[in-house]
Amino acid sequence: MLIDDEGNELILPKSEQIPTDYFKKGESVRAVVKKVELRNNSAIIILSRTHPTFLAKLLEIEVPEIMDGLISIKKIVREPGERAKVAVESYDDRIDPVGACVGMKGSRIHGIVRELRNENIDIINYTQNIQLLIQRSLTPAKITSMNIDDTAKYAEVFMKADQVSLAIGKRGVNIKLAQELTEYNIDVFRDDLEEGEFDINLDEFGDEIDAWVIDEFKKVGCDTARSILNLTDEELIRRTDLEEETIQDVKDILKREFDEEESAG
Asked: Domain residues of the chain, as ranges?
């Protein structure tokens, strides 16, 4: 329960707090009003620190160009405490909207990041070119090529192996936010197989590997045999919720398949 300057009681539910939020008695708390409910003829004011509007208001405070209407926030998507993506657009050609929001040496964005408990904030230059928007939304990953189906709102994105994990992000957060920002379903694929090298889709091992295990690998961008074999056990344990023994069993199955293919060749 919180009290504002006028003595009104405010409620900040746990569900509206950033997971790592911790407040001491008497401490000032910043939040936005999410809704006001009437109960027994009295107003119940519900606050939020997880709603995208909270980040929008923090940006307005730190970036005068937003407050003055020179820069517009087109869309904000958040995984509170983890990552946020903000698409911004400038109405003045002389103003770089991304640079204005970040500030000199990150001076404007650093305070917001601290307020949001070290939430990573990607500021993206908005564009109506969907291919470019998808590319920017997958920051920090670098894309090699892309196939887009505008009717189905679906994109196949190809990139080097070392970029796949960046595009997917920890627990799949980065690609999830990119999909919310662009409103396109995005699948990420590796495109760096050397000449004569082959790979096998993980779904082909459905008779040997449990479906839920395959799904766990897919969540972190490992949808082929080589994408798993190219990573160490430690890296796979860190990225997935799988046990070391399970990962080792899967790797043994995949290695056997490649050994058989090479023997046959």
From this structure: 2-48, 202-264
